[in-house]
Amino acid sequence: MLQKSYHTKTTELISQFIKSKVEKGFTAGELSEFLKENGMDVNKTTVYRNLDKLTEKGELIKHKSMICDGFIYQNADEEKHCDEHIHFQCSKCGTVVHLTDEKTKEYLSSISKELGLQIDLNHSSLNGICPKCKTKD
User: Fold this and answer.
1) 41 burial type by CB count under 10 A (0-12 exposed, 13-18 middle, 19+ buried)
2) Is residue 44 a contact partner of residue 32, using CB atoms and an 8 Å limit?
3) For residue 3, what is the DSSP state?
4) Which of 18, 73, 85, 107 is 20 to 30 Å from 24 by CA-CA measure?
5) Burial 76-94 (b: 16+ CB within 10 A, else e)
6) Does pTM top 0.90 for this prediction?
7) What is the distance, to the nearest Å, from the Cα of residue 38 to the centroid of all Cα atoms in its chain?
8) Cα first-last separation, the chain
9) What are the distances in angstroms from CA 40 to CA 8, 48, 54, 63, 126?
10) Where do runs of H (alpha helix) occur along 2-101?
11) Where residue 25 falls among pLDDT bands split at 50, 70, 90?
12) Is residue 2 over pLDDT 80?
C-alpha cells in the first residue's frame, strides 16, 4: 500500500524555500527561520525529519558544513545530475557550485582508478572561497 503524501502549509513553505536556494546551500536553522518569518512555528525535530525525508527521496543532498557545526543541504537538481559530479562549497557564504567540467571529471576518474577508490559524489565536495566572497576581502 502506498503511503499518502500530505501537502501541508509547512511542506509547501519548505518546498518554496528549497526552490529559492537552487544555487546556494542552506542549513536547517535557515529553514527554521524562514518558516518562523512566514508564521509557522515548527520545532527542530519536524524540520530535520522533513529534510531527512527529502534527502532520502533524492531531492536534497546533505554535506558536512564548513560554515557551522552541522550540515548544508543542497537542492539535488535532476537536470544537473548531482550524483555524477563533485561540488564546491564556499566556506563563507555556503554557495554550492556544480563542478561538471571535463577536466574535473577526468581527474576524479583518474584518481579513482589509480588509487582504487570509489568516490561517492553525492557526499563529496571541495571547500574554499567563491569569487564573490573573495572580492569582498
Assistant:
1) exposed
2) yes
3) P
4) 107
5) beeeeebeebbbbbbeeeb
6) no
7) 22
8) 56
9) 11, 15, 19, 26, 34
10) 9-19, 28-37, 44-56
11) confident
12) no
